[in-house]
User: Which sequence fits this backbone?
């Protein structure tokens, strides 16, 4: 089992969906990603929180063997408030307070620099780039992003895409980034920049994995009710790289399995607010749902 | 191999997509459905065209062994003009001239009444109901519909759904008909009305098959370019029931295979305007793409 470095945000989230509301709950891309990765491997967080960050959240992460040596503490914790409308497909932002994230200067613990598996979860692409540049010899680098960075830091994002092994993004972002309605064309454009694989997350419609010569389509899990989709993309990425770090097999066939594990953990995450569902999730449940994914697509 | 009755429209279509335009081309739900079904079984059309309907179109259908004894000729052929915008997901109607379809009175040839497999392709639900009532002992009835009938003839549609074995509809229609964003809930509502199975067509995202206890997710085929999606839903339905009539096996496992054959033929249809791609399609191409569908979802 290999370790994983996860850079991203650790945040307070206030979220409203048609199914309820939660205030100042634990959130952030690095939180969801590392928590999900912890079912498979040993994540190491690189991020920042404020002095107001509750000890119980720290304990929650430590209990999952998540290393927090790279978690700085300063000022106030990054805060995001958003809501989902009826269709639950896209988060609408009500308020963003960057707080300590605004002055976040990377301080990479020496123990992190030799880590083989790197997940650049959603955060400013310049921080993602800087992180990558400090790694000694990363074996496998996965990056995620979001529409905000596609609009505001397109150049840095494009530079970064050229240096990673796998680009993760959702269908709307893929269409936006490569100016095409066709996901197949978007994926080909992405692959032409350098990554060995591109994964397009499609929410309830599943996920697509593209490599130069192959195409894999993972089904969506038939959840009757989605309570809160926040963090599902981060969970997907965390479980994806977590499974690869655990198995240390980067074949296309194993990446397919990793995509399904990513889908499994993301589907659980949508069942409740914040990390509430992940907190009670067991490896047995993950394996059972993985088997269900097999049955769903069998013909 | 069993015969199939197909009731639906035979039409002239004028269609504009971002990839071109075609004028007064052969179209209609019964046309696409029976043409697709003809790869697997012997379709019998119940419909009406005008005196202006070209002999070459009749010949085209006859060459595929499609029985036209139930094709009436009177007045002018039903005409539809529509266009697709950039996202190609939904046809926008520019003009509809019902013409002879407005006075269409069912005249069912006696030879049709004993047919076992019935496809009620998209047409006025009252005509679908009347057709069904004239069948002696249909073994398997599949129905399709469209948003227009959900709005204008909801009551007839609901009555009909109670009498069929399989309800086919696309994701937007499922959400509209059962007033829910959740496709799982929509499918459960549909099943509670009587059908043994519900199939939700999701275009590029594939198709879902729901029965009381099972769920099947067929992947979408990664077409780089969709030239004209007109008729894809009809092709899906035609190939679906065609394969079932051919194999005469109504198990859930075989329905899954039929869903994939439906997806295969629909994906070919989107590659060109009108029936242009279907005209050159071979059973060998269908079987090869069926195998591709297996590879796409393997993990």
Assistant:
């Amino acid at each position: 089992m290999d370790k994983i470095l996860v850079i991203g945000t650790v945040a307070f989230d206030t979220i409203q969906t048609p199914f309820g509301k939660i205030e100042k709950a634990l959130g952030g891309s690095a939180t969801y990603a590392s928590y999900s990765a912890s079912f498979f491997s040993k994540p190491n967080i690189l991020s920042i929180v404020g002095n107001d960050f509750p000890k119980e959240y720290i304990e929650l992460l430590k209990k999952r063997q998540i290393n927090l040596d790279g978690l700085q503490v300063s000022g106030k914790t990054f805060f995001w408030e958003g809501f989902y409308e009826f269709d639950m497909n896209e988060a609408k932002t009500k308020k963003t307070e960057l707080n300590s994230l605004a002055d976040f200067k990377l301080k990479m613990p020496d123990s992190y620099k030799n880590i083989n598996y790197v997940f650049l979860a959603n955060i400013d692409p310049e921080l993602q780039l800087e992180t990558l540049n400090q790694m000694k010899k990363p074996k496998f680098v996965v990056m995620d992003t979001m529409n905000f960075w596609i609009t505001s830091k397109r150049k840095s994002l494009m530079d970064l895409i050229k240096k990673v092994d796998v680009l993760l993004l959702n269908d709307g972002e893929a269409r936006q980034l490569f100016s095409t309605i066709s996901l197949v064309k978007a994926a080909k454009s992405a692959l032409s920049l350098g990554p060995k694989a591109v994964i397009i997350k499609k929410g309830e419609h599943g996920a697509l994995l593209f490599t130069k010569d192959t195409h894999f389509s993972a089904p969506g899990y038939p959840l009757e009710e989605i309570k809160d989709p926040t963090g599902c993309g981060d969970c997907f990425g965390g479980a994806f790289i977590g499974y690869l770090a655990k198995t240390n097999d980067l074949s296309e066939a194993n990446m397919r399995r990793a995509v399904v594990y990513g889908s499994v953990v993301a589907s659980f995450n949508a069942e409740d607010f914040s990390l509430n569902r992940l907190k009670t999730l067991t490896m047995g449940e993950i394996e059972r749902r993985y088997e269900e994914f097999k049955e769903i697509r069998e013909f």
Notes: Chain A has a mean pLDDT of 96. Residues 141 and 279 of chain A are 27 Å apart (CA to CA). Chain A has eleven helices and 13 strands.
